[in-house]
Design goal:
Blueprint lengths: L1 H27 L14 H28 L11 H19 L1
Keywords: Membrane, Transmembrane, Transmembrane helix
Amino acid sequence: MVRQLGDLMRAAFATSIALGVGWTAALLVPLYDFLVDDEQRYLPISYVIAWTGIAAAGVAAAVMSFSKLRTRRPIGWTPLVAVPLVIESWLLGCLVALVLG
C-alpha cells in the first residue's frame, strides 16, 4: 500500500512537471513573431511544428503511462518523457522560424 502511494505521488509530481513545461512552451510559441521579418510566410509552419510537437509529447507520455498501468507496472517518473520532447519541438519550431523567416 505504501509502495503504491509512493508511486502515485511520483507519477503526480512528474505529471505536474511535464504539464508545467508544456504550458510554458505553449506560452512561448508566440515569441516566434519576433524572429521573423515583416514577411511572415513561413511563420505558420513553425507554429504547426511547435504545437504538433507539444501535443505529441503529451500523447506519448500518456500512452506510455497507460501502458504501464495496464500491465500493472509502476508508473513512477514515466510522464517526464514529455519534457525533452516538448523542449525539442519548441526549439525545432524556433529554428524553422529563424532559418525560413
